[in-house]
Amino acid sequence: MRLSARPIAALLAALALTAGLSVTGTPAVARSDEGPPAAEASDVSIAADTYTWKNARIDGGGFVPGLVFNRSEKNLAYARTDIGGAYRWDQTGKQWTPLLDWVDWDRWGWSGVVSLASDTAEPDNVYAAVGTYTNSWDPTNGAVLRSSDRGASWKAATLPFKLGGNMPGRGMGERLAVDPNKNSVLYLGAPSGNGLWRSTDSGVTWSEVTAFPNPGNYAQDPTDTSGYGNDNQGIVWVTFDERSGTAGSATQDIYVGVADKENTVYRSTDGGGTWSRIAGQPTGYLAHKGVLDSGTGHLYLTLSDTGGPYDGAKGRVWRYDTESGAWTDVSPVAEADTYYGFSGLSVDRQKPGTLMATAYSSWWPDTQIFRSTDSGATWTKAWDYTSYPNRSNRYTLDVSSVPWLSWGANPSPPETAPKLGWMTESLEIDPFDSNRMMYGTGATVYGTENLTSWDSGGQFKITPMVKGLEETAVNDLASPPSGAPLLSALGDIGGFRHTDLDAVPAMMFTSPNLDSTTSLDFAEAAPGTVVRVGNADAAPHIGFSTDNGANWFQGSEPSGVTGGGTVAAAADGSGFVWSPDGAAVHRTTGYGNSWTASTGIPAGATVESDRKNPKKFYGFKAGTFYVSTDGGATFTAKATGLPAEGNVRFKALPGTEGDIWLAGGASTGAYGLWRSTDSGTSFTKFTGVQQADSVGFGKAASGASYQTVFVSAKIGGVRGIFRSTDAGANWTRINDDARQWAWTGAAITGDPRVYGRVYVSTNGRGIQVGESSDTGGGGGTDPGPGPDPTDPPTDAECSVKYKVTNQWSGGFQAEVTVTNTGSTAYDGWQLAWSFPGDQKVTQMWNATHRQDGAKVTATNVGWNGKVAPGSSAGFGFTGTSTGGADPNAFTVGGEACTIG
Predict the structure, then answer these.
(1) What is the pLDDT of residue 796?
(2) What percentage of the chain carries pLDDT values higher than 90?
(3) β-strands 460-464, 395-397: how paired?
(4) Of 322, 314, 267, 268, nearest in space to 288 by CA
(5) C-alpha distance across the termini of the chain, in Å
(6) Mind giving me the DSSP string for 637-697?
């Protein structure tokens, strides 16, 4: 069950590593210190349509290496993922709200979060250190994002080096920390030999702490030449001893963990002015975590012989007495009995001396969690053997809300299904509630709300606490004309048959279980026939279904196959063409009982089927398009001059023979969108599309003569998700700057049964589902923000206060308060108004906005959407103006408000 997520774009062939749900509020809007790229001129007409977005629910699906609770405000918690952004806990819905969906295509690496810090002194402040890879795979330097509204909006300080949210050692931490006594001071531990960094202005600027003596020296694999395994993991955690400072004065005692097996802990006793290695510390290990129990004065270390998150064969837990300077090995088991490292570490802030640790790399038979109530003198285990292989568990594990977590497995003891976890590098006891604990695994977030039953001899109940945190990497999508509306091919967890987009599927695809599904297809005229291929440690790499993906059976495969590649089903289901990794393109009739090598097409080509003619298949590689008219037995090279580099994806139009759309390329060569109407003999490029990366089709608009086309592309200088209802003559952008999801180039498809519905792949934020407000299927018209706020008032159930708080030449700042004067609580709100002059909103906080001419619509963010009767929600914004009065009419949900 080793999870791995695929790096994006040019990285697809390089390495597969870990990574993944429903937006519970309006996504945050980026407010970066860096300006957005300038728009390019275009003669393409681009309108905007109003879409609502959500995830096709999976719940989890990837590695959660970090959990952070705020220590001064109850129920304020954050989670970080390695490639899928950051989240804030919503206690009301007991779910997670995504905070980094605004990350754009050009800065996709900022969706990898290497560390989070929540400000104890001012809980509205939160910081995220972002960047996915420290080597050339990620073209962008890392950044420290800062928010003063709990992640609803952000500003960025770009660093002069890269950060590695998806690099080895990403479960260590936290590398980012806020001084609990003087919150303008922050520290960041950097990788790659870049040392320790500090900000003294609340994260606006950063500089290296040149006095810090050791930038680390440990690399997972020094022989690796890719810059991945051989990267120095650097400074891995920072911990303040808040007892050594007072409010407003910098904390004096600071502890720092370093990726150096002989020198893994350093301390400053003068507020970071000087640093020294702590004498007597354990050696031969890396300290994954360093947590200080301020109630006892003990600093605890969890140690492993490697940096994780997959590896680790030995480990220890040590305690440092900050008063006496004594070191004590308080490991739960003897060193000889470990075959794993320790990482997850937390102390109970309500009960000094109570702590927990995890055996993060215990893959078999299960992970282990340890608990001590006497400062590590004695420990108990979450499970233990009675008589091998039988186990006695201190917990019950209920995954009925996310049933696929069992993986459909039925293992022999001592293994269980579902497992307690793996890659358990994050574990946190709620600082306000000794009964609540959460921990991250390679696939989910688990938690309990009766933890102290552990100590009384009872069983504590573990359940998934992952709703809203959607972290899958999506490789392919298909929406058949009948049966399930969506079939998915996912990294790490294979894929699902989604019969209900708002419900967690019962199980991923099985028989075979694939580590990652790379491609799937259905027969257009017989959609019960489905094929999927993917990666696995051994054969089989292919599965077939005759009931629309509900049940599967394994297929045989040609010799030499090492990975999934791409696969295509004949339009009537009579045969299949497979281009696997490690072998030539092959064809089969029936369900893969025997395979015959195709001729005329190179190995590694991408293959697709014609959606009408069952004998016709297509292929593409290195700028040349290939066509078969005999069921894939032989291919002939046709069109050339297409993109020779970059990732290229193409689709044939359902119901029409020979109509093919091709998207892809690279900025160093041909890049864009092409169409062929003669089965690939020739292609015509869309001149108004600067770049395109995936293309798909959906139900035609009412009165339209052509199916709706969806692309992930750059059109008119704007990157986004676009829709055309007139075969590409005009395009409508259907996402917005708050919903960009970093990289969306793997797959896109419309729904053939619902006009306007689109399914979009992401690399770590799961499957995004877009629904159009234009249900009738019109063109690219803008419905506007809602009713005109100047309409006569009805029985007002809202009141608005609008106040300009600051003005300067050409600009102003305003605060707005919305009060619910009705008898029913708001469950989300939109406030609309029209400016009487030339005012333009430039930035907004505690709400997101959309402006069309004079009309503005402000929408709640996730944490302030619920407004009880008599309660209020507020937000603010800055704007530009050369003159004009304040607005004098407002509506909430189309209903006019009083002004007070």
Answers:
(1) 59
(2) 82
(3) parallel
(4) 314
(5) 59
(6) E----S--SSEEEEEEPTTSTT-EEEEEE-TTS-EEEEEESSTTS--EE-TTEEEEEEEEE
| CA proximity to 326, closest of 272, 382, 280 | 280
Spatial CA neighbour of 670 closest among 623, 602, 717? 623
Three-class SS state of 863: helix
Cα 95 to Cα 135, 419, 699, 788: the distances in Å are 34, 22, 33, 35
Average pLDDT over residues 359-369: 98
Rounded distance, CA 144 to CA 204, Å? 9
Q: Which residue has the higher pLDDT, 528 or 774?
A: 528
Q: Where are the alpha helices (DSSP H) in 277-328?
A: none
Tokens (6 digits) for 8: 């994006």
Please tell me the number of Cα atoms within 13 Å of 804 on its side-chain side: 14
Q: In this model, does residue 593 exceed pLDDT 90?
A: no
DSSP class of 404: G
Cα 749 to Cα 694: distance, rounded to the nearest angstrom: 9
H or E element in which residue 267 lies: strand 265-268
Q: How is residue 587 written in tokens?
A: 């064809």
Q: Are 216 and 235 in contact (CB under 8 A)?
A: yes
Q: CA 654, CA 667: separation in Å to the nearest integer?
A: 30
Active site amino acids: 82, 492
Token reading at 35: 């300006």
pLDDT at 280 > cutoff 80: yes
DSSP E strands in 364-515: the ranges are 368-372, 380-381, 383-385, 391-393, 395-397, 426-429, 437-440, 445-448, 460-464, 474-478, 486-490, 497-498
pLDDT tens for each residue of 480-527:
999 999 999 999 999 999 999 999 999 999 999 999 999 999 999 999
Locate tokens 């394994």: which residue?
554
Determine contact, residues 156/48, Cβ cutoff 8 Å.
no
* DSSP assigned state of 456: T
C-alpha distances (whole Å) from 49 to each of 27, 52, 771 are 17, 10, 10
Task: Quickly tell me which residue has 């890392």 as its tokens.
Answer: 142
User: What is the 8-class DSSP label of residue 177?
Assistant: E
- Residue 406 DSSP symbol: G
Sequence-distant (≥ 6) Cβ neighbours of residue 45 within 8 angstroms: 730, 731, 780
The mean pLDDT of the chain is 91
Sheet with 624-628, side-by-side order of all strands: 606-609, 617-621, 624-628, 636-637
Neighbours of 324 (CB within 10 A): 8
Residues 6+ away with beta carbon under 8 Å from 313: 305, 306, 338, 339, 340, 341, 361
Summarised one tens digit per residue, pLDDT across range 3-16 is: 334 333 334 333 33
Q: Provide the pLDDT for residue 703.
A: 94
What is the spatial distance between Cα 516 and Cα 4, in angstroms, rounded to a whole number? 8
Exposed/middle/buried for residue 297 (C-beta within 10 Å: 0-12, 13-18, 19+): middle
Burial group, residue 623, by CB count within 10 angstroms (0-12, 13-18, 19+): middle
Per-residue pLDDT reduced to its tens digit, 216-252: 999 999 999 999 999 999 999 999 999 999 999 999 9
Using pLDDT thresholds of 50, 70 and 90, give the confidence band for residue 787: very low
In the block, tokens 């303040």 appear at 240
Our CA angle for 799, 891, 468, nearest 5°, is 95
Confidence of residue 353 (pLDDT cuts 50, 70, 90): very high
pTM: predicted TM-score of the whole model, two decimal places: 0.84
Q: What is the pLDDT of residue 155?
A: 97
Predicted local distance difference test score (pLDDT) of residue 725: 97
Over residues 813-834, the mean pLDDT reads 89
> Which range (123-127, 376-380, 529-533, 779-783) has the least confidence?
779-783
